[in-house]
Write a structure and sequence with these properties.
Low-confidence stretches: none
Structural class: mainly alpha
Oligomer: single chain
Number of strands: 0
Number of domains: 1
Order of helices and strands: HHH
Helix content: over 70%
Largest sheet: none
Length: about 80
C-alpha cells in the first residue's frame, strides 16, 4: 500500500510541477529548475511527467526529459512488482 501511495504522490507532484512550470514559462516568471523536474521523473514520476508533457506541450523537444521520464516509469513498475 505504501508503494502505491508513493507512486500516486510522485506522479501527481511531477504533473503539477510541469503544469506550474509551463504556466510560469508563458508569463516569463521564475521557473522551476530542470534538475527538480528530472529528479522527480527518475524518482518514479515518469507517468505523471509524460502525461504533463502531452497535455501541456511542455519540455517535449528535450530528449533528456523523455529519457528520464521513461526510466522513471520503468523503475516505478519494478518497485511496484517486486514489493508486493
Amino acid at each position: 500500500m505504501l508503494q502505491v501511495s508513493y507512486a500516486l504522490f510522485i506522479n501527481v507532484l511531477l504533473f503539477c510541477l510541469m503544469g506550474s512550470d509551463k504556466k510560469r514559462a508563458r508569463k516569463g516568471a521564475w521557473r522551476i529548475p530542470e534538475k527538480y523536474l528530472l529528479g522527480a521523473g527518475i524518482a518514479g514520476g515518469g507517468f505523471g511527467g509524460l502525461l504533463a508533457m502531452k497535455l501541456f506541450h511542455h519540455k517535449t523537444r528535450k530528449k533528456i526529459f523523455h529519457f528520464s521520464f521513461w526510466i522513471g516509469c520503468f523503475l516505478l513498475v519494478i518497485l511496484l512488482i517486486t514489493n508486493k
